[in-house]
Specification:
By secondary structure, this protein is of the alpha/beta class. The protein contains 14 helices and 10 strands. The chain has 2 domains: 175 residues, no CATH class; 207 residues, Rossmann fold (3-Layer(aba) Sandwich), CATH 3.40.50.300. Helix content is 50%, strand content 13%. A 6-stranded mixed sheet has the order 2-3-1-4-5-6, with helices on both faces. Strand 7 and strand 8 form a beta hairpin. 44% of the residues are buried.
Length: 403
């Protein structure tokens, strides 16, 4: 993909667009590149006292048993970075030992206090976001110390990295609020909902006393049971909402891998369409002054990069072969030996235009149709024929709109 972006940037300077539009295009291409070429694991610091459910939350985000949960005693030891990974990628978690705890954790501790441990880890690597966890039944109990240390953590990060790190408040274990007869999601009992809303209000107010920056507070349930590594009971709630919100707080280069490895369909689609909108904006600018199809490597290269990014988000390994398979699904016959930039040139042949010219509206319509087909193929895991049907349907719809 790096070579493809180098190819795109090189050809931008050859396009017959104004210098102003050229600058805008290069800026948007830079953003797109950060999503794909510069993608890296998200770095998430999780802070909260013993029993707040830090390890459970990690497992809930993965949908797998990745972090060991301590049921009777604090499990997490020295505050350090852990790479929690599966075959799709990884995220870096600063899973701290509980603030304000009285027992030593199971794992070895090298420094005297939790905050000192966190300082050492933060010097090593800057988190992208802090998740502050509080049990639903304890949102108004003994939070002063925790919140003061949270404020110190933000100050440390600002001092070391000059970064005003966002904080997300998480009310955990909301399934344990009354009435217990309403134990499974979506927790639609009026009393349960009222209790959940009250915990959110309380935690929001308490955090605001220590942090001036507005903080989003999200209530979650993360309880899961595993047998021999297999999920046998799932009581998760709002984890998709949490991941979706995290994607708005994380740097662009950290978003794709998180969306991919959480395997949350709705989140993956939302990010895919966000990237598609960016590409549509670029192709629209380029096509604002009609240019010959023979000179369309930028537009078609961007469309190939869009297909590639959607494939990555959907957890598919991006290869030349996978791009060729998608192109074939769209009715384009290209050889597996072609470079991505040559596939891009070939793909231009299926974008409808008037004679030898393509307009901004046509370029945008083609890009939208390609993105929806790629979402169907790579994220929804539908067949090639179904993806082609979506492509043709969306292209037809866009034609009608433009007429």
């Amino acid at each position: 993909m790096k070579d493809l972006f180098d190819f795109i940037v090189k050809n931008i300077n050859k396009t017959k667009v104004s210098n102003k539009n050229k600058r805008l295009i290069l800026e948007e291409v830079g953003k797109l590149r950060s999503f794909i070429v510069d993608a890296r694991p998200a770095r998430i610091a999780i802070v909260g006292r013993r029993g707040a459910g830090k390890s459970s939350l990690i497992n809930a985000m993965f949908g797998e048993e990745r972090a060991e949960v301590g049921h009777t005693k604090s499990q997490t030891g020295m505050g350090k970075w852990y790479a929690f990974e599966n075959e799709l990628g990884s995220i870096d978690i600063l899973d701290t030992r509980g603030l304000g705890e009285f027992e030593r954790p199971e794992e070895a501790v090298q420094t005297a206090t939790p905050l000192e441990e966190i300082k050492k880890a933060v010097q090593e690597k800057c988190p992208d976001v802090v998740l502050f966890l509080s049990k639903a039944k304890e949102v108004d109990a003994r939070l002063e110390e925790d919140l003061q240390q949270l404020k110190q953590l933000r100050d440390i990060i600002k001092e070391y990295h000059h970064y005003d790190i966002p904080v997300v408040g998480i009310v955990t274990q909301v399934d344990e609020l009354a009435p217990l007869s309403n134990i499974d999601p979506p927790f639609d009992h009026p009393e349960k909902q009222a209790n959940i809303n009250e915990t959110v209000t309380i935690l929001s107010k308490r955090i605001s006393e220590f942090i001036e920056k507005p903080v989003k507070v999200i209530p979650v349930a993360a309880y899961m049971e595993f047998e021999n590594g297999k999920l046998v009971y799932d009581r998760r709630w709002n984890i998709d909402l949490l991941v979706d919100f995290l994607l708005t707080e994380l740097p662009q280069e950290a978003q794709v891998i998180l969306a991919k490895l959480t395997k949350i369909n709705s989140v993956q689609k939302k990010l895919a369409r966000k990237i598609a909108r960016s590409v549509m904006g670029i192709t629209g600018l380029i096509g604002a002054s009609p240019i010959p199809i023979a000179d369309m490597p930028v537009i078609t290269g961007l469309q190939i990069s869009l297909v590639g990014s959607i494939a990555i988000i959907g957890g598919q390994k991006l290869t030349r072969k996978s791009i060729v398979q998608f192109a074939a699904a769209m009715g384009l016959n290209v050889g597996a030996g072609l470079a991505l930039r040559e596939i891009a040139r070939q793909l231009a042949k299926i974008i409808p235009g008037a004679g030898n010219l393509v307009s901004g509206a046509v370029a945008t319509a083609g890009t939208y149709a390609i993105s929806e087909a790629a979402i169907t193929y790579y994220i929804d895991r539908k067949s090639e024929e179904e993806a082609k049907q979506i492509f043709e349907k969306e292209l037809k719809k866009q034609r009608i709109k433009s007429n």
